[in-house]
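so my prof wants the structure for this chain in the tokens format not the other one, which i didnt know existed until like an hour ago. anyway here's the sequence
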Amino acid sequence: MTLLEEFAYLAAELGLGTYTPDAPGGTIYTALLPPDPDICIAIARYGGTESLVTDDFDQPSIQIRIRGSAADTRNAEHLAEHVYKAFHGL
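here's what i got, hopefully its the right format
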């Protein structure tokens, strides 16, 4: 299982949406946001701080993007707040 998949499953367990990696219809995606649904989450990995050669670990960074309806942006803002509260400090 990849790091992004682990975060997607965790987000689903935290009640932030549904993750269905092998079937369409979820609201949590890894890497890219699909054209549908209007309100969804994308979890992406991007470069973190570079590890020293002597370190035996990496420090990847994770970015969570939220898309909401253009008709009412408050839904996306509320979801973003829920995501922040769920993940911040874990």
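also thought this was worth mentioning. The chain has a mean pLDDT of 90.
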